[in-house]
């Protein structure tokens, strides 16, 4: 669900329960016991990594990325991104842009 386009009218918990044919509470407890993190934190981490990729690809603006990643708002995406990375999406993009050298400058 992290790599799908557009809105999905289903929660991760419903999706996992349906796909794995088990109660979400059971799955969440099992996952936490084995992985040492919650399913929610695991999914958030993967979403943030996907958002970083989308920012680096520079094909979508932050509003489009928020929609693509199923966030209710840009503010929600930005807050979650900053909580995980310590940077706002725009600051992350600025850092990425500063590190990139034009091809003609390489050599």
UniProtKB/TrEMBL annotation:
Name of one Pfam family that matches: HTH_18
GO molecular function: DNA-binding transcription factor activity; sequence-specific DNA binding
Gene3D superfamilies: Homeodomain-like (1.10.10.60)
Domain HTH araC/xylS-type: 16-95
Keyword Transcription: yes
Top-level lineage group: Bacteria
Record PROSITE patterns: HTH_ARAC_FAMILY_1 (PS00041), HTH_ARAC_FAMILY_2 (PS01124)
Alphabetized UniProt keyword annotations: DNA-binding, Transcription, Transcription regulation
Annotated protein name in UniProt: Transcriptional regulator, AraC family
């Amino acid at each position: 669900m992290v790599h799908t386009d557009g809105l999905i009218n289903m929660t991760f918990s419903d999706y996992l329960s349906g796909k794995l044919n088990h109660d979400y509470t059971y799955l969440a407890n099992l996952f936490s016991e084995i992985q040492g993190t919650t399913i929610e934190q695991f999914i958030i981490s993967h979403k943030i990594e996907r958002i970083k990729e989308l920012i680096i690809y520079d094909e979508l603006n932050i509003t489009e990325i928020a929609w693509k990643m199923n966030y209710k708002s840009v503010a929600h995406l930005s807050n979650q991104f900053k909580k995980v990375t310590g940077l706002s999406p725009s600051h992350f993009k600025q850092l990425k842009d500063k590190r990139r050298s034009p091809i003609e400058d390489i050599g």
